[in-house]
């Protein structure tokens, strides 16, 4: 289990290209090359953008839906059909990312045979290059990731809400709390722990993202590297260019990003727990 | 009394009226966003080639079930699915057997280095897969040089890697679960002369059933949906698992000009999950979220 990781750190400091000849030790040369590599910085910036936006959008949507499904109805019960909604919302979670990627490749087709562009063109609008326009493609990737993730967090937050005693909401309602204060003053503070767990999970998902980019986008992270992420560059360098040393250096950097994120998240999440 | 309560409720309903309507709209919109892409794919899977390239929202003139036959045979979806089933059955079985035994021992038997072993196993959670991709590739390649049965492009090799990767979370989860179980039952069995093996299989495992079900579902889905590891470890086409087959199929469909088979293949990949999910949705939801709530 551990050995491959130790090796990864060593390979990162060699110019190994996978052939049998002994790899030459090059110290930090790979890292120097990385930092002057424009594609590397593109990948890092995409991961960073995802790290901020994916948790933010997913958690806001999931909290909103979980609130509606559990507390937002009449009295303090969920709206009608809340069980059905929860089942439907969660479904994308059981699909393989590779399957979702191919599915949305078809949904995003650039001409009128695409599920989205068909109606757009029927309305007389010009088609959107969801995957072919470099300025749009990244947002398509983000959209699909949110599409797949929200349901999981709706269920997670619902489980969290179920453990909050119902009389809390009832007491607040008797005191005249509307739905907004019910959400911001009661639900959110009591659910804060679960929200932080969700934040860490989604953050790791944003740093780890590979399959959706590799399978769905043009030229594996294109067009013109406009959607590429670190994991895709690792795979490309290692198994398409056979630059194993360089790829491992990328992996090491990514490892420190992930660890850094985890430590930061743990630090920030130290907060008093509300007992009930 | 009854009347007044009813009128109060009615009063509140009118007060929340527009907001309530809006929230219903939001829920319905999201439901549509979930369902429509999948239904659209199902629909396209029975269309002809021209219909797929025509208007996206037209209905098929006739249902072309032969798309499925081509996807199953010529696009090898049948073969890939069989490969997935083989790999996932063995790897889940291995993960659960080894993981539950290790977790049980670590949770219940105090011995020197217990804590150390536990931390060593669980530390695997902190290391991301991609960091190890390159070394892993060569580790498996070297394994194959010694024992050809478990090298690159073998399902047994992938099974071993899957087991290794599923172990940290399985042990983390099950050890926590075993610790919550009462000790009295096992002690009584020990007094009655049951061996440790027997206690484990006949008493502890049945008691840990809810936890085992959750983590089994977690592992089955995780391994079934895995893409990056097989991409590295299985490079021969006939060994591919389903996710690889699906991911490659848009390239293949481009060559063969057979897009209807692509939609049929997607449907074949989605439909079984849909059926399994509808039947077991409670267990699946609790199984997948269990890890996050620990």
Protein architecture, described:
The complex is a heterodimer of chains A (276) and B (294). Chain A is 67% helix and 0% strand. Chain A contains twelve helices and no strands. The two termini of chain A are 41 Å apart. Chain A has a domain at 51-227: MetI-like fold, CATH 1.10.3720.10. The mean pLDDT of chain A is 80. By secondary structure, chain A is mostly helical. In chain B, helix 5 (77-108) runs antiparallel to helix 13 and helix 11 packs antiparallel against helix 14 (259-293). Chain B contains 14 helices and no strands. Chain B has helices at residues 2-15, 17-44, 49-53, 66-73, 77-108, 114-122, 129-146, 155-180, 184-191, 196-207, 209-224, 228-233, 242-256, 259-293. Chain B folds into two domains: 2-69, no CATH class; 74-293, MetI-like fold (Orthogonal Bundle), CATH 1.10.3720. Classes of the chains: A mainly alpha (276), B mainly alpha (294). Chains A and B meet through helix 1, helix 3, helix 4, helix 5 and helix 6 of A and helix 1, helix 2, helix 7, helix 8 and helix 12 of B. Chain B: It is found in: Cell membrane. Chain B: It is a multi-pass membrane protein. Chain B: Keywords: Cell membrane, Membrane, Transmembrane, Transmembrane helix, Transport.
Short description:
Chain A is an all-alpha fold and 276 residues long. Chain A is built from twelve helices and no strands.
